Amino acid sequence: MTSTSSKPHDLQALDTLTGGAFTAPTSGERAARIRDWLAGTPTAEQMQEVFKELSGRDKGAARLLREKLDELKRAKGQEAIAAEWAQKAEALLGQSKLNIADALAWQRDAAKAGAPLSREPLAGLKLKLAERVKGIEDLQHRAQVHREAAVLLAQRFEVLSTKGWQDAQAAEESLRADVTHWQQQAAEITTDANWTSLDAKFAPQLESSKSQLLVVSDAFHSALAQALAAAADAAAPLPPVPVWADELRAARGEVVAPKPAAPARPAAPKVDPAVRAAAQDAVQAALAKLEQETAEGHGKASAGAAAALRAVLKEHGKLVEAPLEARVHAALVAAGELEGWQRWSADKVREDLVAKAEGLLKRPEGQALGGRKMQETLRALRDQWKQADQGGVPNHALWKRFDEACNEAHKVVEAWLEKVRADAAEHRALRVALIEEVKAWAAEHAGATDLKAHNRALHQFADRWRDAGHVGEKVFAELQPLWNEAFGAARAPFETAQKASVERRQAMIAEAAELGAQPMLRIDAVKALQQRWQAEAQSVPLDRRHEQKLWDAFRAPIDEAFNRKTAEREKASAAMSEHDRYVLEASKALDAANAGGDVQKIRAAIARLEGALRGEAPPPAPKAEQAAVATDGPSVGATEVVAPGQAAAEFGESAEQAPSPSDAEASPGTTADAAPAASADLVAPADGADASARTDGEAHDAGEADAAEAPAAAPKPAPKPVVAMRGDDRPSSKKAEAAPAARGAGGRFGDRRDGGRSGAGGSGRPGDRGDRGAPRGDARGDRGAPAGRFGDRPPRFEDRGPRLGDAAFRAQREALERADMALRKLAAQAHGEALTQVLGAWEQRDASRLPSIQELGRAVTPAVRTGWSQAIGSAPTAAANDAAEALLRLEMAAEVPTPAEQLDARRALQLKLLTKRGDPAPAQTWGQDAGKVLAAAHDASSARRLQNALKALLRK
Fold it and tell me: The whole model's pTM is what?
């Protein structure tokens, strides 16, 4: 059986107890009700229960309860402290002789210990001690004043002794009464309860003053009695006081001896004007210094300057004139006033310091000072207080307040210091444990072979030692030698391995120097040495800087040897051969043709450059070229003259790099005799798809050209009958007897150098693509005849011309690249002009302005151009719907975007085409669709759409 929870009832009771704090709608109202409830002094048990329930609901309101509970806890802890310090205060008060320093030290030490001096009983005891100290100080003051009163009474007796005895007789009773009163006061001082607490010097001083006063008083009264007796009786002796004795002699009628006249004062000597001027200057200098310090408000400096001025006046005061003396007295008075003001300003500084000290513990929440910051602040405040004390009279009341505030704030410093000491002890234990761990690890891994892991572990130990926390200087000085010893023992095997590795590397550096000094550099030995170095570097790690320095020393002789070899190679290649000069001149001529922008000249320059690359003689003069063309036809290196339309067509063909049927017909046959004839009749190519591919094989082409020209010089003997053949000797596997024509010997510019597998160089296998008339190069990149069935391959490289130097090679390659770009640009310009002419012919309905078939390019067949010419030459006959549909088909074929207003129509046409799968696609009928558009009436919108479509279609 489980009992029902009474928590709701407890919350209701607590809510009633706190005045509705748990049911308050807002946190502010809840805190206000808790504050009102705490003002009624509830019990600690009630506050603890309310705090337990409220801490999970409202931390802001619960903070008030927590502070109150903490205050009660501190109060309980302070009760014991208060009792202890109350007992000490009562012991001080019970002493018959109280030392003022002990009383002040009790108050200071009690504040440091955290005793509640503002609450009873310490508040009352503190007041009693203060009153006791004040009574002692007052008694000291009374004793000093009483001593001075005794001196004044003695001076009165001396003054009366210089006057007549009748005056002394008249003042005798009052003097006697004053002396008696002084003795009574002295007795009261000595019988005071605090008399024993005074300094030991006051009792003998007061007793000495009393004895001196009584001696003077008794002598005065006895002399006065003797004077009275002498006045009554002429035979009586005269008193010992000279004035009284002379007066009595005169009364008796005796002759009084006259007093000796005072000697005449000698006349003051005349002062030298130079001495007087020097005295005036000294006084004026001291006066100027005092006035300056007084004007600037320097209290201490002005006091020193005033003292210096007084010293100067003491020495030269008699020589100072009256106006200057008046200025001196005025300056001294001003300096005295400044000193008084300095005392007042010192009190203002002290009050500011007291306010700062009391505000150290009253900072806003979250801005409390830490231990170190509090310690530095307190030290700075005390130093400022010392400086203020040096400029004025001490103020004990302000000092007590300042000292109490500093002692209260010092508790934070003490707590921080305690924490620092605890952390230091913990850190010391951690470092000692780390030293033992390093010793154990060193003993375990004394023979380790993995030096990288060993070094990594050492670094980890060093990081742990560095991050082990702060300890004092004394502890660190004690632990550091132990750590150095343990860490050195753990690092010894690694350092030994490093030393051996450095020796091995030094040996390899010497070996590298020997290799680099040899006249013939052995690459295999260098590679082996570098591999040994890398293996050594990976096995034994060194310091990064040291390792880099060794590596630089190792690499220097090898780099020097390679640089020497490179310099020799460059020196050898610097001498330009005659072949290089021909190629450079041809490259410059090609650049000049490129700058002119003439297609015919560019092609002719390309042909000359290719001839120079093959090692041919420089081309003849232009007249000789024309004669050769008229008589023998185009020779090797000649160039066709083509129109801009033909350039556009050939630009499209070169972009696709597809051989034409004429290229296939121009390919060499199966016999070697056909190659020279074919190469003599073909036209040299002028452009290509890749200029770099053209330059890569120039030397190979030159070799093939030499091989083709050799039979012309000396006819080959008849081939011998084949008796035996390696491999398969079937007719279908016979190898080609002549390599296909090189680029310069046949084919269009941009065609592949290699021929087909069977059509170019041999019969090949039945069914190969070469049988269908489509020459194709070897897929493996061989440039000669196709490979046989059983691995027999033709030579890897073609015959080529002499090797080019670096400058000539770069010049011809860059010139060919620029020529290729120029031809492409000219072809593109021609293509754009042809398209503009088509649109102009449509607008003017003039078929004569339609470009030729060559200008339109190979994408437009003669039949398509004829249809366009008929559509433009006749009046507009096509319906608007047919023309719109034809435009959509053109945009679909060219894959160009359609205007937004025609998108629905394009989607509808696409759906329509999906239903007619047997009809030709738009890409196949774009020529006829363009004719339909041209047959319709011209408008600007249709012209823009047609131009965009044809721009893409004519390039395909």
Answer: 0.30
